[in-house]
């Protein structure tokens, strides 16, 4: 769903969906949002998504 909203340019709606999830969003969700930010040139939201992705990298590194 995040990917579909992102492709449609509805980045704020995608962000709201992520924030309202009843579970912790995984790296796939944040990657989808980051890709949409790249396509639609949303630097602010891209920074947020990238930071969230880096948190997963730190968690996985041990």
Automatic annotation (TrEMBL):
<dbReference type="InterPro" id="IPR011990">
    <property type="entry name" value="TPR-like_helical_dom_sf"/>
</dbReference>
<protein>
    <submittedName>
        <fullName>Pentatricopeptide repeat-containing protein</fullName>
    </submittedName>
</protein>
<dbReference type="GO" id="GO:0009451">
    <property type="term" value="P:RNA modification"/>
</dbReference>
<dbReference type="InterPro" id="IPR046960">
    <property type="entry name" value="PPR_At4g14850-like_plant"/>
</dbReference>
<dbReference type="GO" id="GO:0003723">
    <property type="term" value="F:RNA binding"/>
</dbReference>
């Amino acid at each position: 769903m995040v990917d579909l909203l992102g492709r449609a340019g509805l980045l704020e709606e995608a962000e709201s969906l992520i924030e309202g999830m009843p579970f912790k969003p995984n790296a796939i969700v944040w990657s989808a949002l980051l890709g949409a930010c790249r396509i639609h040139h949303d630097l602010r939201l891209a920074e947020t998504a990238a930071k969230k992705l880096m948190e997963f990298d730190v968690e996985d590194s041990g």
